[in-house]
Amino acid sequence: MMLYLKKYEGAGILPDGPLDAAIGGSVLFETTKTPPETPFLVVTWSFGANNIGISTPSGENIGVNYTGRARITHSTGSLELSNLTAADSGDYGVAIVPSTGGQEWGTYSCFSFMNVSDASVKPTNPPVEGTSLNLTCEASGSVLSRKWMKDDSDLILTDNMKLHDNNRVLSFTTVSRNDNGEYVCHISNSFSSMLAAFSLTVNYGPENVKISGENQIKVGSTIKLSCTADSEPLAEFTWLFNETQILNSSSELIKDNANISDSGTYTCRATNEITGKSGSAEHRLSVTNTSGDNNYCDTGCIVGIVVACVVVVAVAIGVGCYCVQKK
């Protein structure tokens, strides 16, 4: 904590303020007076309606509440106050009676301030590309100034940024991934300072959803398709085969021992839960038996062979009958 002491009135007897002093420390209320040839008759210091002390050429009389804390320098009329507390905030007055008579006076107004503490920088909402965003710099104690930095350099405001509320809030009209980086708020007063940082990662996507893999494979081979998407955070994936969802949430789709029936359209759907957006891509796969594997024949193949055999037998019977009749 600190005290902030400001000259209030009584020009000519007190110097221009302000004065700064830390809680627990001391402060010197100096006057502008130089030691006169004949000492002042009386120097009196007060705090509000309370007497701090009275000094005369014969000595000083310090008030009970200030014993051991206050000391008056009679030659100049200055007051030193130590072991400061928050309760020392208020109006201080001095009255000096010179040897020539009359009286000179002046007052200081004293305000207490806390050390800066509990500093933080927080976003008002999840940062999503294309939306507005506020970063708010908060702190406990007495904040006299705030200064923003980005990636260890002074923040240079772009067209989509502005500072307001005495630099407490940094606003983005529309945030983009180009705004990513570490933002630091430097909070200070005369006696203390703190840094608060926030690492900004803008969420976006998914974009550019793509499926990679073979378009044609042999029967019995392994189907292996891979799906990618530009997304922050990483997208979640869902696979469909001929518009029917497959129980697979990985970016890769793998199936061993492919059949003809596995031919069709594979769809990868990418979703970002933060941005609420999704995207998809399609991939056509053909599973064929054109590999020269003579040991494999699917149902269509078998039906074709049976039909061919029936035709051959029918022709043979027909030819045989013709030959018998000819004889």
Q: Give me the Rg, rounded.
A: 44 Å
Helix coverage percent of residues?
Answer: under 10%
Q: What would you call the structural class?
A: mainly beta
In CATH, the architecture of the largest domain is Sandwich
Question: What order do the helices and strands come in, and which of them pair?
Answer:
Blueprint lengths: L1 E8 L9 E4 L4 E3 L12 E6 L2 E7 L2 E4 L7 E4 L4 E4 L8 E8 L6 E10 L3 E7 L9 E8 L4 E6 L2 E2 L6 E4 L4 E4 L8 E8 L4 E8 L3 E9 L3 E3 L4 E10 L3 E6 L2 E3 L5 E4 L8 E9 L4 E12 L10 H28 L1
Structural notes for this entry:
This protein has 327 residues and is mainly beta. The protein has 3 domains: 2-113, Immunoglobulin-like (Sandwich); 117-202, Immunoglobulins (Immunoglobulin-like), CATH 2.60.40.10; 205-288, Sandwich (Immunoglobulin-like), CATH 2.60.40.10. It is built from 1 helix and 26 strands. It has one helix at 299-326, and strands spanning 2-9, 19-22, 27-29, 42-47, 50-56, 59-62, 70-73, 78-81, 90-97, 104-113, 117-123, 133-140, 145-150, 153-154, 161-164, 169-172, 181-188, 193-200, 204-212, 216-218, 223-232, 236-241, 244-246, 252-255, 264-272, 277-288. A 7-stranded antiparallel β-sheet has the order 2-1-10-9-4-5-6, with no helix packed on it. A hairpin with a 4-residue loop joins strand 7 (70-73) and strand 8.
